[in-house]
Amino acid sequence: MIKKVIIAGADAVGSHLAQLLAKDNLDIVVIDEDQEKTDALTDSGNNDLMVINSSPSSVSCLKEAGVGRASLFIAVTPSESKNITCCMLAHALGAQTTVAQVDNAEYVQPQHEELFERMGINSLIYPEMLASQEIIEGLQHSWVRQYWEVHGGALVMLGIKLREEARLLDVPLYKLCRPDSPFHIVALKRDEQTIIPGGGDCLRLGDIAYFMTTKKHIPLIRQLVGKEKYADVSDVMVMGGGKTAVHLAHSKPGWLNMRIIEKSKERCRRLNEILENDDVIIICGDGSDSVTMQDEGIGECQAFAALSEQTERNILACLVAKRLGVRKTVAMVNETDYLSLAEKLDIGTIINKKAIAASHIYKMMLDARVADVKCLSLANADVAEFEAAEGCPAVKHLVKDLGLPKGVALGGLVRDGEGVSINGNTQIMPGDRVVVFSTGNLIKRMDRLFRGHSFGVTDKLINKFA
Q1: Would you call 191 exposed, middle or buried from its count of C-beta atoms within 10 A (0-12, 13-18, 19+)?
Q2: 165-to-179, 184, 226 alpha-carbon distances in Å
Q3: FRET label pair with 179: which of 160, 294, 398, 420, CA 20 to 30 Å apart?
Q4: How far, in Å, are 21, 66, 73, 144, 365 from residue 3 at the CA level?
């Protein structure tokens, strides 16, 4: 059971985690030597967490924080070496599980996992790598806002913006999602509101609808939402030559042609060295300037990704790209305050590295029966995959008789490796992997449903941003 969490680093990820976890009746300690950052946490009104203004790599500081009683130690300072050192010390002093944020892609390669385990580091977070994976998924499925494969692709979740071409508008869901339907609409984002819909709800113009289905039915959904004419992406222009762009270039699939536009001449020189073998074109210029973008061939690209560290510039560049005819845009949004604005401006796919890091850390707080966690950051909803235990409440009744609370929907299940749609007459079996959508603080209740008792995780996923 997670009881005590120590967070080393009060920067963006650390402070956000602290503020959310402090609401879950956990013993939270935040350590940072920057007085201004620790004061900001204290001034934010979080009386349920302890703040220590000292170096998290200090043995005496760690002992003062009670690291020997810590269930989880998270090091998310801006310094990779400090994060590694802190975790090694925390492990040696008795912390049960340690997590370190790193900046080196080499460290997260599978062959080095055992090495870091021996060093006392249980998990590494490299947000740029995880962000690049999400970007590639977004480009591969250019007509969706969010794409998530469950259990190796047995089920897929599609978050789709509904426009005039959609054939599903203003039709009650009980007519769309019948027992024999090959998909289930599990959540809606409508303006600032998140809805777990019932049978009487209708889809409206501008909604983001979240579909759960199997891969073979994706073409049907694409047709129903009127996205058949969306061009598949083969060429992408990326603004910003930072770490995320570099990792995207290293990991891009063969079908994707990529060009990076970067303002700094020195950075362009460095990119040419780093990406010498990655078949990527480097352009020195301003990716937010419409004339420059046209001169550099934005019209030949089906997608544009703005990945600079300046959120406002990324949003502006995506708006320019859309005005120049690019249908698929991706924006790195680093400040959570801008997420809602980016959605209102119809930017497209939004990448938030804090959300990615938070999702990864949250997995450290879950029992093995919760196989995966996904944050619908724009929908203020969470998705988790649970395994139904023998004798748990979920296997004793039909789905319609489980008494699911408002704000929870079962999206589908995986049985013997095959994806299966869920309706009210579905009988969940022991060993089924069930995908649960929820809003609010309902995760612990779902733990009890699928396992029969709570195993002490927090009431909510730590990556709620909208």
Answers
A1: exposed
A2: 25, 20, 5
A3: 160
A4: 11, 12, 11, 39, 10
Strand partners for 259? 237, 281
Which amino acid is it at 190?
A: R
* Phi, psi dihedral angles at 28 (to 5 degrees): -110, 130
The predicted-structure confidence for 217-273, as pLDDT tens digits, reads as follows 999 999 999 998 888 899 999 999 999 999 999 999 999 999 999 999 999 999 999
- Higher-confidence position of 18 and 445: 18
Given the DSSP bridges, would you call strands 208-213 and 193-195 parallel, antiparallel or unpaired?
A: unpaired
Query: What is the rounded CA–CA span in Å between residue 373 and residue 384?
Result: 5
β-pairing verdict for 208-213 and 155-161: antiparallel
pLDDT above 70 (res 3): yes
* 213 contact partners, CB below 8 Å, separation of at least 6: 155, 156, 158, 182, 183, 184, 221, 412, 419, 421
Q: What percent of the chain has pLDDT over 70?
A: 87
84 has pLDDT over 60:
yes
Give pLDDT tens digits for 63-75.
999 999 999 999 9
The whole-angstrom distance between residue 173's C-alpha and the CA centroid of its chain comes to: 27
CA-to-CA distance for 320 and 371, rounded, in angstroms?
A: 40
From CA 177, how far away is CA 337, in angstroms rounded?
A: 35
b/e sequence 369-387, b meaning 16+ C-beta within 10 Å: bbbbbbbbbbbbbbbbbbb
* Range in 17-21, 205-209, 214-218, 378-382 with the lowest mean pLDDT: 378-382
Spatial distance between the Cα atoms of 388 and 428, rounded to a whole number of angstroms: 8
Closest by CA to 248, choosing from 338, 397, 135, 142, is 135
pLDDT score at 27:
86
* Range of lowest pLDDT (27-31, 220-224, 334-338): 334-338
Q: Are residues 74 and 361 in contact, defined by beta-carbon separation less than 8 angstroms? A: yes
Q: Which two tokens stand for residue 382?
A: 């969470």
Residue 293 scores a pLDDT above 50: yes
Cα–Cα distance between 360 and 220 in angstroms, integer? Answer: 32
List, in sequence order, every residue forming a beta bridge with 410; answer none if it has no partner.
436
Enumerate helices (H) and strands (E) in the chain, giving the number of each: 15, 22
Buried b (16+ CB within 10 A) or exposed e, 315-329: bbbbbbbbeeebbbb
Residue 346 CA to residue 93 CA, distance in Å, equals 49
Burial of 460 (C-beta count, 10 Å sphere; 0-12/13-18/19+):
buried
What is the pLDDT at residue 284?
95
What single-letter DSSP state applies at residue 352? Answer: -
